[in-house]
Amino acid sequence: MIVTVTLNAAIDKTYHLPALAAGQVSRVDRVYAEPGGKGINVARVVALQGVPVLATGFAGGSNGDFIERGLTRQGIAHDFVKIEGESRICLNIMDQDGVSTELLEPGPTIAGQEMEAMRQKLALLAARAKVVAFSGSLPAGVPKSFYAELIGIAQKQGAVVFLDTSGEALMQGAEAKPYFIKPNEDEIAQWLGHSIEDENALKQGLLRLNEAGLSCISVSMGAKGSLAAFRGTCYRVRAPKVDAVNAVGSGDAYVAGMAIGTAQGLPIEECLRLATASGTANALTARAGYVEPEDVKRLLGEVVVERIGG
Ligand code: TA6
After folding, report:
1. pLDDT at 268 over 80
2. For 111-116, which contacts have Cβ atoms below 8 Å and span 24 or more sequence positions?
3. Which of 7, 42, 90, 147 for a ligand 1 pocket mutation test, highest count of atoms within 8 Å of Cβ?
4. pLDDT tens digit string along 108-141?
5. Residues 6 or more apart in contact with residue 188 via CB below 8 angstroms
6. Residue 34: helix, strand or coil by DSSP?
7. Is the CB of residue 188 less than 8 Å from the CB of residue 179?
8. How many Å is the Cα radius of gyration of the chain?
9. What is the dihedral of CA 211, 217, 219, 225, to 10 degrees?
10. CA distance 35 to 48
11. Neighbours of 200 (CB within 10 A)
């Protein structure tokens, strides 16, 4: 089973409209509202591909109730720590040219006893999991070290741990040496203590992070695809070109594919292939964190994974 942890869960609302005109009244053509936040998007993409998954994290208020009811409706098992605060709304405004404008609320403030409840629930869930994936921002009230603490709890239960977050939460979470992380180039440069001039410098930096105990790292290169390093070997991955409808959630779908491949014990090349096909498939749907399984299967054959050495 794969367990996803969303400490800052959201209702992801997507508005499709002709154009966003600041300072004016705009009427929205299509509205989508569904359980969201990075970890929940990961769980949905895993579930859509028929792989056992359970979503946990913090959820509270009427928005938290909507999130849990939505997961039940989507057939996704869930077991959240209920909190006093109100889970947030994350808004994505898509215009007719495909330009996405995201407005992400900060979310609730978490209390000490709610953090303790998360520690205890995670220990029980991680004992049943092959992979535990932590995704998304940390809510207020939670120290930046909380991911490192939770990663330690999950690893102690024998789970393989993924961490997909950013900034200081990633820097401190990475100290617990999760199996998989998905940093951007700036975060890698911060780790290394110097700027990254070119792809070769990025490759060398990834290999140094492998040596430092971060087994599997993937860095998005945008339209060029991604660069990955796995236990001392680097790979360049090229995604098929598609006409994106809504790319929001593609990073989460990538994590979902990587988690499925890892849980199934696939070779790293196949994990990278499934991750990239899932991320690309997400961009083909109007909803955030959603794929058509047939798209994933079709795209698998179009992903190019090239071993570029250690
Ligand atoms: O990656 C897309 C997304 O999950 C959106 O759906 C929205 O929920 C946002 O990211 C949340 O990001 P954050 O980093 O605040 O957890």
Report:
1. yes
2. 111/83, 111/84, 111/141, 114/58, 114/81, 114/83, 114/84, 115/141, 115/142, 115/146
3. 90
4. 999 999 999 999 999 999 999 999 999 999 999 9
5. 196, 202, 205, 206, 209, 219
6. strand
7. no
8. 19
9. 120
10. 14
11. 11
The residue from 12, 164, 252, 295 that is catalytic is: 252
- Decide whether any atom of ligand 1 lies within 6 Å of the 39 Cβ: no
Q: Are 92 and 17 in contact (CB under 8 A)?
A: no
pLDDT at 265: 98
- Three-state secondary structure call for residue 310: coil
For 164, phi and psi rounded to 5 degrees?
-125, 90
Instruction: Fill in the amino acid letter for 309.
Output: G
Q: Are 291 and 282 in contact (CB under 8 A)?
A: yes
pTM of the predicted protein model? 0.96
CA distance 58 to 271: 29
Active-site annotation holds for 252: yes
Q: Return d(Cα 269, Cα 261) in angstroms, integer.
A: 10
The residue whose two tokens read 């292939």 is: 273
Distance 34 CA to ligand 1 centre (A): 12
Closest C-alpha to 153, from 138, 180, 132, 175: 132
- As beta bridge partners, residue 35 has 11
- Determine the pLDDT at residue 189: 87
Reply yes or no on whether the pLDDT at 38 is more than 90: yes
pLDDT, mean over the chain: 95
Three-state SS for 130-181 is CEEEEECCCCECCCCCHHHHHHHHHHHCCCEEEEECCHHHHHHHHHHCCCEE
pLDDT, average across residues 233-256: 94
Tokens of residue 123, six digits:
């220990």
Pocket test for ligand 1, best of 4, 6, 58, 104 (most atoms within 8 A of CB): 104
